[in-house]
Specification:
The structure holds two protein chains of two kinds. Chain A is α+β, with helices and mostly antiparallel strands. Chain A is built from eleven helices and 14 strands. The radius of gyration of chain A is 18 Å and the shape is globular. The mean pLDDT of chain A is about 95. Chain B is α+β, with helices and mostly antiparallel strands. Chain B is built from five helices and five strands, in the order ββαβββαααα. Chain B has helices at about 20-30, 85-90, 100-115, 120-125, 140-150, and strands spanning about 1-5, 10-15, 50, 55, 70. Chain B has a five-stranded mixed sheet with strand order 2-1-5-3-4, with helices on one face. Chain B is globular and about 45 Å long. Classes of the chains: A alpha+beta, B alpha+beta. The structure holds flavin-adenine dinucleotide and FE2/S2 (inorganic) cluster (FES) (2 copies).
Chain lengths: ~270, ~160
C-alpha cells in the first residue's frame, strides 16, 4: 500500500513550517507519522505536501515550570513514558503514554501529533483533558494558549487552524490520586472505552472512545462535587453522552463499560 | 529526492519518491529482503528494524524520514564470527517455525534488550506486544529472548 503522491519538505524551524503551511494549499504537518501515514496509505488522506517537523529537536523536551510541566509537542510517547520529572509530578501522563500502541509505535509517535490528530479513541487526548492541560500553538498571527477543554471540537477536528503548529503542552502538577483504565481485548489495541481520573481538590474524569472527541464525564463530576458516593457518581458516567456503535462494541455496551471503568477509576484515584 | 542513509554500517545514497516507504526502500532499492511485510498496516511488526538503535515499523516510516539516519536490519545482525546472540537463541530455543515474523521479532528484541538488559518473562511479553506470530504460540520466542539476555549479559549490538 502506497500513499498517493505528494511533495515533501523538511521544515527548518517552527516559523518556517508556519509559512509553508500558510502558502501551500492542502499541505499538512508530519510529526511521527503514526496516525497520518496509515491514513494516507489507506487513501483516507491525500495532502498535496507533507511538511516534516520530525527533525525539529527544539520541540522535544520535558521541563519543570513551577506549577506545571512543559512538554514539547514533538516529545515521543517513549520519552513521556520514561520521564522521571513526569513520573514524580504528573504520574498519570507517563502511565497513559505507556499504554499507547506498542514499543515501536511509542518510538515514533509524538504527544503533539496525538493531540493535534484529536482522535476520540486516543489515550493521551483524554488524559490531558482530565488534567486541564493547556496547549501552545503558533500561527501566522503569533502564539496563543488554548485550554484542553476548548480544543477538541469534532471527529478528528480541533480548533487549530490549518496553518498553526502545536508547540507545547502544559500539564499542571498535582499531588492527589489518579487512575487510567483502558479496556481492550488484545494487547496493543486501541481502547474500546477508556477512563482517566485525576483527583486534585476536585475530581476530573474523562472518557476515551465514547464520542467523536475525548469527553469529560460531566454527570460523574457534578455528582462527586455534590458529595455523591462512587457508586452513585459512576452510574452517571455517560449522562448526556451518546456513544457510537462499531464492530467492537454497541452503544449500550459502551455505556455499561463506561460505568464499570469510571467506578474502577474512582476507587483507585480516591482511595 | 536524494537521501543518504547508513544501513548495517554501509552508506547509501539514493533518489526516492517522497511516498516510498522505508520497508520498500530497504527491500526493493537496497535488496535487503530480510525485512518482511506482513500486514502493511502497522500492526504485525514483521517489518521491524532499528532506526538510530530503536525499533520502528518500517512500513509506517517514509524513506525520506530516514534521510541522514542510521539503520540496522536483520542482515546487519550476524558478523563474520557467526550469528548474533539473539539469532542464536532463537535457533537453540526453537523460537521460530515458518520464520516469517522472526526478523521483526529479533529486531524488536534487540531494541528492547538495549533498554532492559535483564528483563522478566512478563516484561519480554509486553515488549513484543507489537509483533505477531501465527505459528509458535509465542512461548519459545519469549524463551529465546530470555536466553539471549542471559547470553549477552547486558552487552547489546
Ligand atoms: C499500530 C498503531 C497502534 C496505535 N495505538 C494507539 C493507541 O493504543 N492509543 C493511542 O492513543 N494512539 C495509538 N496510535 C496512534 C499513535 O499514538 C500516534 O503516534 C499519534 O496518534 C500521532 O502522533 P504522530 O506524531 O505520529 O502524528 P502524525 O501522524 O505525524 O500526525 C497526526 C496529525 O496531527 C498533525 N500534527 C502532528 N503534529 C502536529 C503539531 N505539532 N501541530 C499541529 N498539527 C500536528 C498532522 O498534520 C496530522 O494531521 C497507534 C498507532 C499505530 C500505528
Ligand atoms: S508490515 Fe509493518 S507492521 Fe506489519
Ligand atoms: S514463526 Fe511463523 S509467524 Fe512466527
Amino acid at each position: 500500500m502506497f500513499p498517493a503522491s505528494f511533495d515533501y519538505v523538511k521544515a527548518t524551524s517552527v516559523p518556517d513550517a508556519v509559512s509553508i503551511l500558510s502558502s501551500v494549499e492542502d499541505s499538512k504537518l508530519l510529526a511521527g507519522g503514526h496516525s497520518l501515514l496509515p491514513l494516507m496509505k489507506l487513501r483516507l488522506a491525500s495532502p498535496s505536501m507533507l511538511v516534516d517537523i520530525g527533525s525539529l529537536s527544539e520541540l522535544s523536551y520535558i521541563e519543570d515550570k513551577g506549577d506545571y510541566v512543559a512538554v514539547g509537542a514533538l516529545t515521543r510517547h517513549h520519552d513521556v513514558q520514561n520521564s522521571r520529572l513526569l513520573k514524580s509530578e504528573v504520574p498519570i501522563l507517563p502511565y497513559v503514554a505507556s499504554q499507547v500502541g506498542d514499543p515501536s509505535v511509542r518510538h515514533r509517535g509524538t504527544i503533539g501529533g496525538s493531540i493535534s490528530h484529536g482522535d476520540g479513541a486516543s489515550d493521551l487526548p483524554a488524559a490531558v483533558l482530565a488534567l486541564d492541560a493547556k496547549f501552545v500553538a503558533v500561527g501566522p498571527k503569533g502564539e496563543r494558549v488554548i485550554p484542553a477543554s476548548q480544543f477538541f471540537v469534532g471527529f478528528l477536528e480541533t480548533v487549530l487552524d490549518l496553518d498553526e503548529v502545536l508547540t507545547e503542552i502544559r500539564v499542571p502538577k498535582f499531588s492527589g490520586g489518579w487512575s487510567y483504565q483502558k479496556f481492550n481485548r488484545r494487547a496493543q489495541d486501541w481502547a474500546i472505552v477508556g477512563v482517566a481520573a485525576v483527583s486534585n481538590g476536585s475530581t476530573k474524569v474523562s472518557l476515551v472512545n465514547m464520542g467523536s472527541t475525548p469527553l469529560r464525564a460531566v454527570g460523574t463530576e457534578a455528582a462527586l462535587a455534590d458529595g455523591a458516593s462512587i457508586e452513585e457518581a459512576s452510574s452517571k458516567a455517560s449522562d448526556g453522552i451518546d456513544p457510537p456503535s462499531d464492530l467492537n462494541a454497541s452503544s449500550a455496551y459502551r455505556r455499561h463499560l463506561a460505568e464499570v471503568l469510571v467506578r474502577r477509576a474512582l476507587v483507585e484515584a480516591l482511595r | 529526492m536524494q537521501i543518504t542513509t547508513t544501513v548495517n554500517g554501509h552508506p547509501y545514497s539514493k533518489d526516492v519518491e517522497p511516498r516510498t516507504l522505508l520497508v520498500h526502500y530497504l527491500r526493493d532499492m537496497l535488496g535487503l529482503t530480510g525485512t518482511n511485510v506482513g500486514c502493511d498496516t502497522s500492526s504485525c511488526g514483521a517489518c521491524t528494524i532499528l532506526l538510530n538503535g530503536e525499533s520502528v515499523k518500517s512500513c509506517t516510516v517514509l524513506a525520506v524520514q530516514a534521510d541522514g539516519q542510521e539503520l540496522v536490519t536483520i542482515e546487519g545482525m550476524a558478523t563474520e564470527s557467526g550469528l548474533h546472540p539473539i539469532q542464536k537463541a532463537f535457533q537453540e530455543n526453537h523460537g521460530l517455525q515458518c520464520g516469517y515474523c522472526t526478523p521483526g521479532m529479533v529486531m524488536a528484541a534487540a531494541s528492547f534488550l538495549k533498554e532492559n538488559p535483564k528483563p522478566t518473562e512478563h516484561e519480554v511479553r509486553e515488549a513484543l506486544e507489537g509483533n505477531l506470530c501465527r505459528c509458535t504460540g509465542y512461548h519459545n520466542i519469549v524463551k529465546s529472548v530470555l536466553a539471549a539476555a542471559t547470553a549477552m549479559e547486558g552487552v547489546v549490538l
